[in-house]
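Support request from a user on the community tier.

User writes: "When I paste my C-alpha cells into the form, the page sometimes reloads and wipes my input. The last time it worked, I copied everything first. Here is what I submitted, just in case something in the input itself triggers the reload:"
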C-alpha cells in the first residue's frame, strides 16, 4: 500500500501525500502554485485548466490533453503531468513562440489551455491539417481574441516536427508502476490491474466509487465539492483496457477511451466516427470511456443510441458470474440499469458491417462541438436487392432511457427506402415516442426533429445530401 501519489510533474518525480480525490487543478494551484493552469468553468467545458497527461508504452510517452478541473490526483498516479510552465525549456515551446509572434492572445486567460491543446496536437499528429487543428481546439474557449490568429499560429507549428513535449525519460516513467492501493489523509484509491481483482474489490467494498475516466463523475465532484473516501479505478485493469478485432466484431474493454474507440471504428462506420469526433472535446474523449458512457445511463448520452442501432452486446461481470445482453436491455428506467451492485461492465462487442448494411447517426445540438445532444438518432438497415431486410433505429433524448423504436423499424422492413417508407418511419417515430420538454428543446421540437431524421437518412443514402461538416 502506498501513502502518497507518485508521478512526474514537468519532468520531475513527485511523491505527494494529498487526498486522492483532490482535483489536479486544485493541487496545482494551491500546492506547487503552478497558476498558469486556470480555472474557468470547473466542469470540463472551457479548457482553461488543460494539462498534458503522458503514459509510457511501446518505447515512447504518448501525451494527450485533459481537463485538470475534473481529474483527481489519484488518476495521475504513475503518469507524467505537464503544465504550461513545463513546456518552456531554455526557449519557448514552438507553440508558445508562434502564439506570441502571431498576436494570438489578448486577455490571455484561455492562452495556457490553448497552448497545451496545440502542443498535444503538434506532438501527436505530424500531419495535422486544419480539421485536426479545429478538433484540437474544440474544447478550448477563447472569449476575446477569436480563433483566426490562434489557428494561424497553430498552422505554423503543427506538421513541422520538432515540437516534442519536455517530460521524463520513457524508462523512468515506465518504471513508475501505478500503486495497487493509495491511502492518504483518510481516503483510499484502488488501482487494480486485473479484472478478478477489480471484481473482488467491487464485491467487498460496495460503498466505493467506481471510477473510469471521471468525465461524468468528476463534474459532480468539482461542482459539489464532494468527498470520495474510497475509489476503485478501472483505468489500469488490463482486460478493461483491451481492444480486439475478429473477422466479425470489434471488442472494446469498458475502460477504452473514446479517442481509442474512434481510431478503430472509423474505417467501418464513418458516421459513428463523425459522432465520436463531436463527443465533448479531445480532452474529454482522451479520458472518457465507452463503458463510462454506458454506465452513467444518461438518456442523452451519445454512445448508446449508436451502439443500440449497431446491435451491440455488452458483458457484465461479477466475481461469481459473467453474462451478456443486448445493450438495449441494459437500460431499465431513468438512470436505472440491469447492473447489480457487485457487477461492472466488462466489454462491448460491436458487429462489423454486414453486406448491404448502411448506418448513420445524427447528433442534434445547439453547437456543433462540445455540446450535449438535444436529440441523437441512429439508423441502421441491411438492404438486399434494394429492399430493406432488417432495420434497427434508436434515439437518445427522446425518453428516460436510450430507446430502440421497433415500430419505426417495421415501417421500413420489406420496402425500398423511398419517400413513402421514410414518411411511414417518421410517423411511427412520432407515435412511439413521448419526450419531455427541457431547456435544450421542447417535446414538440424533439418529436419533429426525430421524425425528420427518417427523411434525412433516406436522402443521405440516396446521395441527395452531403454531410455539412464532415470532419
Ligand atoms: C465537457 C463535457 C462534455 C461531454 N460531452 C459528451 C458528449 O458529447 N456526449 C456524451 O455522450 N457524453 C458527454 N460527456 C459525458 C462523459 O464524458 C461521457 O459519458 C463519458 O463516456 C463518461 O466516461 P468516463 O470514463 O469519464 O465515466 P466516469 O465519469 O468515470 O463514470 C461514469 C459512470 O459510469 C460508471 N462506470 C464507469 N465504468 C464502468 C464500468 N466498467 N462498469 C460499470 N459502470 C461503470 C461510473 O461508476 C459512473 O457511474 C461530456 C462530459 C463533459 C464533462
Ligand atoms: S476549468 Fe473549464 S474545463 Fe476545466
Ligand atoms: S485571449 Fe481572452 S479569452 Fe482568449
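"...and here is what came back when it finally went through:"
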Amino acid at each position: 500500500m502506498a501513502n502518497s501519489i507518485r508521478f512526474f510533474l514537468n519532468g520531475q518525480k513527485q511523491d505527494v501525500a494529498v487526498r486522492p480525490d483532490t482535483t489536479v487543478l486544485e493541487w496545482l494551484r494551491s500546492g506547487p502554485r503552478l497558476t498558469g493552469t486556470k480555472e474557468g468553468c470547473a466542469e470540463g467545458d472551457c479548457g482553461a485548466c488543460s494539462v498534458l497527461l503522458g503514459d509510457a508504452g511501446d518505447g515512447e510517452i504518448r501525451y494527450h490533453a485533459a481537463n485538470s478541473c475534473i481529474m483527481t490526483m489519484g488518476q495521475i498516479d504513475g503518469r507524467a503531468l505537464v503544465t504550461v510552465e513545463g513546456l518552456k525549456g531554455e526557449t519557448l515551446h514552438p507553440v508558445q513562440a508562434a502564439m506570441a509572434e502571431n498576436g494570438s492572445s489578448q486577455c490571455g486567460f484561455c492562452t495556457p489551455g490553448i497552448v497545451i491543446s496545440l502542443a498535444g496536437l503538434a506532438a501527436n499528429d505530424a500531419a495535422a491539417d486544419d480539421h485536426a487543428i479545429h478538433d484540437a481546439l474544440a474544447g478550448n474557449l477563447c472569449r476575446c481574441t477569436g480563433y483566426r490568429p490562434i489557428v494561424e499560429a497553430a498552422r505554423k507549428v503543427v506538421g513541422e516536427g520538432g515540437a516534442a513535449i519536455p517530460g521524463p525519460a520513457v524508462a523512468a516513467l515506465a518504471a513508475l508502476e501505478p500503486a495497487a492501493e493509495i491511502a492518504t489523509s483518510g481516503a483510499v484509491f484502488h488501482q487494480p490491474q486485473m479484472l478478478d481483482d477489480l471484481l473482488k474489490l467491487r464485491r467487498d467494498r460496495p460503498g466505493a466509487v467506481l471510477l473510469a475516466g471521471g468525465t461524468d463523475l468528476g463534474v459532480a465532484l468539482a461542482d459539489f465539492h464532494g468527498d470520495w473516501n474510497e475509489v476503485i479505478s478501472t483505468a489500469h485493469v488490463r482486460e478493461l483496457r483491451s481492444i480486439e478485432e475478429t473477422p466479425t466484431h470489434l471488442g472494446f474493454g469498458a475502460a477504452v477511451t473514446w479517442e481509442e474507440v474512434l481510431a478503430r471504428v472509423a474505417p467501418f462506420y464513418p458516421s459513428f466516427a463523425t459522432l465520436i469526433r463531436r463527443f465533448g472535446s479531445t480532452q474529454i474523449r482522451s479520458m472518457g470511456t465507452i463503458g463510462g458512457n454506458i454506465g452513467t445511463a444518461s438518456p442523452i448520452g451519445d454512445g448508446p443510441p449508436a451502439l443500440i442501432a449497431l446491435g451491440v452486446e455488452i458483458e457484465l461481470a461479477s466475481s461469481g458470474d459473467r453474462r451478456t445482453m443486448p445493450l438495449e436491455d441494459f437500460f431499465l428506467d431513468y438512470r436505472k440499469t440491469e447492473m447489480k451492485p457487485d457487477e461492472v461492465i466488462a466489454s462491448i462487442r460491436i458487429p462489423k458491417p454486414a453486406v448491404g448494411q448502411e448506418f448513420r447517426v445524427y447528433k442534434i445540438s445547439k453547437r456543433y462541438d462540445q455540446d450535449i445532444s438535444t436529440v441523437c438518432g441512429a439508423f441502421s438497415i441491411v438492404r438486399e436487392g434494394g429492399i430493406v431486410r432488417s432495420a434497427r433505429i434508436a434515439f437518445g433524448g427522446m425518453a428516460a432511457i436510450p430507446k430502440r423504436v421497433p415500430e419505426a423499424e417495421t415501417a421500413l422492413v420489406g420496402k425500398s427506402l423511398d419517400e413513402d417508407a421514410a414518411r411511414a418511419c417518421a410517423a411511427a417515430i412520432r407515435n412511439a415516442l413521448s419526450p419531455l420538454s427541457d431547456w435544450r428543446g421542447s417535446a414538440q421540437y424533439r418529436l419533429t426533429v426525430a421524425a425528420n431524421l427518417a427523411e434525412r437518412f433516406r436522402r443521405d443514402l440516396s446521395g441527395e445530401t452531403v454531410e455539412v461538416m464532415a470532419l
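Agent notes: The reload is a front-end session timeout and is unrelated to the input. The chain is about 30% helix and 25% strand. The chain has a mean pLDDT of 95. Escalated to web team.
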